[in-house]
Amino acid sequence: MKKSDRLKARVADEGKNIKVADSVNIPKFDYPIFCFKHLSKTHGLDRCTNAEKAAFIERLSKLSGMTWNQIQFAPKHGLGSEKITVESIKPGLPDFLSSDVGFLFAYRFDGKKPFVAHKSGTILHVLYIDNKLDVYSHGS
Q: Which of 20, 42, 108, 119 is the most buried (most CB within 10 A)?
């Protein structure tokens, strides 16, 4: 018998002693943890220039050094964010978002170019990198 035949992956599910959570909240962990699992295939890093990629990484680095409270009160076109209603998102929404999610957050990189994300506990799920300004209506 091959070793691979003997080893079977076990999947944690809910039971008497196990509870699977939809989000992670770590006490006294008040800064963003970035997740890219749900990053759009049509609005991801592939369509960014090298300069935009560098600016995006630089922005994530700056945000990771801030608390959620500092981010919340920062200017929206600086290191802060603005709320974007889910109805205004032009590409399809990821399946993992529940129907009770009413808005997402737009954060800026490379000038005023936004990336759009969903905050769940301490995790910021990056969904769209909007370098072409076509994910939602931006106004003037």
A: 108
54 pLDDT band, cuts 50/70/90, is very high
SS3 letters across the chain: CCHHHHCCCCCCCCCCCCCCCCCCCCCCCCCCEEECCCCCCCCCHHHCCHHHHHHHHHHHHHHHCCCHHHHHHCCCCCCCEEEEEHHHCCCCCCCCCCCCCCEEEEEEECCCEEEEEEEECCEEEEEEECCCCCCCCCCC
- Distance from the first to the final alpha carbon of the chain: 66
Domain positions in the chain? 31-91+101-134
Instruction: Determine the Cα–Cα distance for residues 6 and 57; give it in Å rounded to an integer.
Output: 42
User: Is the dihedral angle over the CA atoms 64, 50, 128, 89 positive or is it negative?
Assistant: positive
Query: What's the angle, vertex CA 104, arms to CA 103 and CA 106, rounded to 5?
Result: 135
Question: What are 71-104's pLDDT values in tens digits?
Answer: 999 988 888 899 999 999 999 899 999 999 999 9
Measured distance CA(105)–CA(85) in Å, rounded: 9
Long-range residue pairs from 7-15, CB within 8 A, at least 24 positions apart, any chain: none
